[in-house]
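Dear colleagues,

I hope this message finds you well. In preparation for our joint manuscript, I am sending the LLM class F420-dependent oxidoreductase ([Mycobacterium] fortunisiensis) sequence together with its predicted structure, so that both groups work from identical material. I would be grateful if you could confirm receipt.
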Amino acid sequence: MSNSDCRGLKIDRGIPSLLTEVADTARELEAQGYDGCFTGEINHDPFLPLTIAAEHTTRIQLGTSIAVAFARSPMTTAQLGWDLQTFSGGRFILGLGTQIQPHIEKRFSMPWSHPARRMREYIEALHAIWGCWRDGTKLRFEGEFYTHKIMTPMFTPEPSDLPHPKVFLAAVGELMTEVCGEVADGLLAHAFTTRRYLDEVTLAALQRGLDRSGRDRGEVELSCPVFIVTGADEQEMAAASVATRKQLAFYGSTPAYRKVLDLHGWGELHTELHRLSLAGEWDTMGTLIDDEVLAAFAVVAPLAELAGALQRRCAGVIDRVLPGFPAAVSPQTVNAVLRELRESPQLRSNV
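The corresponding structure tokens are as follows:
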């Protein structure tokens, strides 16, 4: 593995965005030994829950996966990141994503253009702003999309000796992955990603970005959610399989993710899934995900073999994993699997 802290694979978990549930969940995840807990920007703000989580934990890392960058100016995001980094004692990870053009323009009423170039500049602007606040340098950022040239003492936060928040970037396409290698601290891969896509497309594009910035692979963490199909018996395995096939069919119908299917020669599957999605045939779509496709996107194994199967999916590539366990698997069983995964000698030897 490429983890610079020699701790091996990091295991993360999502936390609810409902504020009344955050404190208990964050404390529980920290007690269970998770390395990080992440919120997403879906139907709630992703930053507010992390403030509560920071107050009720001391060790676990706290991150957004993702916050929509283009819905906010870099200055707004810089303030949020600075305050959460300070309040958490340096445990905050700012995970950013672009969303898609219709949502940026028609839901957020914000500008959209050249997403990869804009994102590179967005992250550069964040670092310029944070540098101004921490080091007292004059703020003079002038880019193609963003300009930040005014910062008076009244609007400057209190000084901090903490490092800047780590910035993780969601990327599927090669251009955005290269940007990640150039300017980000971590890559947030999409759940609709196969190991082959990581090996042949993601890592190659990431390395091109790293080469341009003169950095090593160990300076960027690769984080990836992983679908899990498991169960204590055939009935539980079958139920988990049906649910996962439906999820994969939904993602496979989305044009932005066709490139993953194309790599495997499954481009026509996207065509048919997209057609069925327009007709609202969601249950039918799931039946098109055969066992080969399922195994490419999900770790499929009975509980007794799950830790080893998940280890093989991650080893040598994924630095942080967010396993998506089926709802039927008990918390005690999840903890046992994750404990076995953490203690795996293969993971330790890959560090």
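For the figure legend, we might mention the following. DSSP finds 15 helices and twelve strands in the chain. Confidence is low (pLDDT under 50) at residues 1-7, 347-351.

With kind regards,
E.M.
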